Sequence to fold (386 residues):
Amino acid sequence: MTNRMLPEHALPSWRRAVLKVGSNLLAADGGGLTPQYAEALAAFITASHAANREVVLVSSGAVAAGRALLRERTAVGPELAARQALAALGQAPMIALWQRLSERPVAQVLLTHDDLRNRRRYLNARATLRELLTLGVLPVVNENDTVAVDELKLGDNDNLAAIVAALVDADLLLIASDVDALYNADPRRDASAQPIGHVPQLTPQIIAMAGGSGTHVGTGGMRTKLQAAEKAAAAGIPTAIFSGRNADTVKRLEADCLRGTLIDVSGNRMQARKYWLRHAPSGSGRVTIDAGAVRALAGGRASLLPGGILEVTGEFHRGDLVDILDAGDRPVARGLCQYGAAEVRRVAGRHSRDIATVLGYSYGAEIVHRDDLATLIDSHTGEQEA
Fold:
């Protein structure tokens, strides 16, 4: 995108990576799908396979492909319905493009909000992706825009890629962009903007450098890439951001050399289950707890008991992911509830020993067991974690 020279540095050691490719690389200049930039990225995937490495591809482009096929027609109906129709129309040519460029069979995997919110479906998706990799197949993942609704959409494929990276226990998240790196200012508007080659840790100052989407084709800008990097870092996965439009840059990846921005991991790797609990899309269930319960959960070693529950809002079933809030509506924790919403309402404020008496049965003394709970506040300061 720019003429600025980027320093080259080594990629972290990796055996399995998730590569995210955006619409701006597959639908150049807002038109239909083109292999112009995809060819170099496919060659990188082939080289990775030859080196006994595994790659999961998260690819945008379906909506852009569908729009190009109907370029001379006017979409009818609500905006969401039109986008869903375009996504359905464009999935086939998008997958066909990658199959044409791939030496291995390509498998399409469409994920939805519910696939990542429901623990059982989350684990099923992970098992499927891992089996595809074992079979030597190239999985191509995308959000299922055809059935997703706005309030349940994952939002963008940058964040989806980070979730998939944790899903398959990847060692590295690679984000191919039309921007060659993170800059300290918008390089499209500021000639003095300088690239940042290495980010040891994401801070609010670093995140503030990110802007919005660069064109009308894509839905995610640098901000979503940093959000994705933050999610990946929470799972112990570093992120590399680079230009997918520069064939030399992509070629250098084969030698584990990055011309772009490497966002490192700080701290220890979070347990996969705790990571999922913290970052999976939430449903409508909310449980409000009192100050004593907030203090207990902040320690990270306590379960949520019925005595600390003040209010239950929304509907959820046993095993669903719920958000846990304090009396001021501040997020405190997230966890898998052992009881449904109606059951929790009936036992709220009571002692655990009363559960069987009130309900006529018991699934245990805890509403959310500590093994199924991830805290969102710091145990020492009581402040919400980033």
